[in-house]
Design brief:
Elements: E1 10-14, E2 18-27, E3 30-40, E4 46-47, E5 50-51, H1 54-67, E6 74-79, E7 84-92, H2 96-108, E8 118-127, E9 134-143, H3 144-156, E10 160-166, H4 167-179, E11 186-191, E12 196-202, E13 205-212, H5 217-227, H6 231-240, H7 247-273, E14 282-286, H8 295-303, E15 307-309, E16 316-317, H9 325-331, H10 336-342
Parallel strand pairs: 1-6, 3-16, 6-10, 11-14, 14-15
Antiparallel strand pairs: 1-2, 2-3, 4-5, 7-9, 8-9, 11-12, 12-13
Helix pairs in contact: 1-3, 4-10, 5-6, 5-7, 7-8
Protein name: Pilus assembly protein PilM
Domain SHS2: 9-175
InterPro entries: ATPase_NBD, FtsA/MreB, PilM, SHS2_FtsA
Length: 349
């Protein structure tokens, strides 16, 4: 979204715990899977969206590209949390070209940084229903030094970064590519290792976004604390939780499930309190944390509405001779951001 011929792009989601890669081929009326892979990152390689260990990230991306034999050089990535500022603002109705000239001046009023230190982008959403002489505009800004770090990492890995998106909007792209732009209001909640992205959408328009500093690593930390084990052992326990009978582990996970569900409820209640008739009717969960045993059920009970895991491969054509569909089902919620990025094209707004 912050940078943006119609040719394949490789979507590379650099999360705080792993690098996820997806390449899609655009077909008439849909997409076909060309490449998919995941590799873990060393602990602390990324902290609070800062690339702390660039060389490890570069090596991990290179390893993925090599193992999957990726030939495409154009890439898309995304950012979230304190790396990006998203504001919905109301402005007098004007053509996009005119807004292009004015957006930096408008952005200065909403962004707590020097305007020269940020990249600014926008999308005109819809007219203001209260005042038809105005329009709602989505304003997105990211600090240039953060974008430059990503540009460097991708260049060193042999890729050209042509699109920088936002995690919440990448998940929205994955959702709309597979479920369509529904007229009902849905909440897309992406629970990564260290951050939770919330995006409320209707008819292809983002109505509300929020990033919360809470993620799947909370489960790992709690397991470590309760069982007195290291991070790696805790990760194994977390991943196998649904398949192994362990009442003590189930209790630990459920406590964190309650915390995560309450945080979702707080954010979505905040949206609903000002939404009027546009209240949320359904929630889709994605991200590594979404697969935690009993989380879907806990969130559904806390929110009092249908909740399901987002499948970013739902309507993606998959050659079963080339890809293990059981593996794809297993990793599906984790790949939502990468799939959304892979649907982007050079020059996209």
């Amino acid at each position: 979204m912050l940078f943006a011929k119609n040719k394949d792009i490789v979507g590379v989601d650099i999360g705080s715990s792993a690098v996820k890669l997806v390449q899609l081929r655009e077909l008439k009326g849909g997409w076909q899977l060309q490449n998919v892979g995941v590799l873990p990152l060393p602990p602390e390689a990324i902290v609070d969206n800062t690339l702390m260990d660039s060389s490890s990230i570069v090596e991990t991306v290179k390893k993925l590209l090599l193992s999957l034999d990726v030939k495409v050089k154009d890439a898309a990535c995304s950012i979230s949390g304190n790396a990006v500022i998203i504001r919905k603002i109301s402005l007098p109705v004007m053509p996009a070209e005119e807004l292009e000239d004015q957006i930096h001046w408008e952005a200065e009023q909403y962004i707590p940084f020097d305007i020269n230190d940020v990249n600014v982008d926008f999308e005109i959403l819809f007219p203001d229903e209260q005042d038809l002489s105005k329009m709602n505009v989505l304003l997105v800004a990211s600090k240039k030094d953060i974008i430059n770090d990503y540009l460097t990492v991708f260049a060193e890995a042999g890729l050209k970064l042509v699109v920088v998106d936002v995690d919440a909007f990448a998940v929205q792209s994955a959702y709309e590519s597979n479920y369509g732009a529904e007229s009902e209001v849905v909440a897309l909640v992406n629970l990564g290792a260290s951050i939770m992205n919330l995006n409320v959408v209707r008819d292809g328009v983002s109505l509300f976004t929020r990033d919360v500093q809470l993620g799947g690593s909370l489960y790992t930390e709690e397991i470590q604390k309760q069982f007195g084990i290291d991070t790696q052992q805790a990760e194994v326990k977390k991943v196998t939780a649904g398949r192994v009978e362990d009442p003590r582990l189930a209790e630990v996970l459920q406590r964190v499930n309650e915390t995560v569900a309450m945080e979702m409820r707080r954010s979505l209640d905040f949206y609903n309190s000002t939404a009027g008739e546009d209240r949320i009717s359904k929630v889709y969960l994605s991200g590594g944390g979404a697969k935690t045993s009993q989380l879907v059920e806990t969130v559904q009970q806390k929110l009092g509405m249908p909740v399901e895991l987002l499948n970013p491969f739902l309507r993606v054509a998959v050659n079963e001779k080339e890809f293990d569909t059981v593996f794809l089902d297993e990793i599906a919620p984790v790949m939502a951001v990468a799939v959304g990025l892979a649907t982007r094209r050079v020059g996209d707004k």
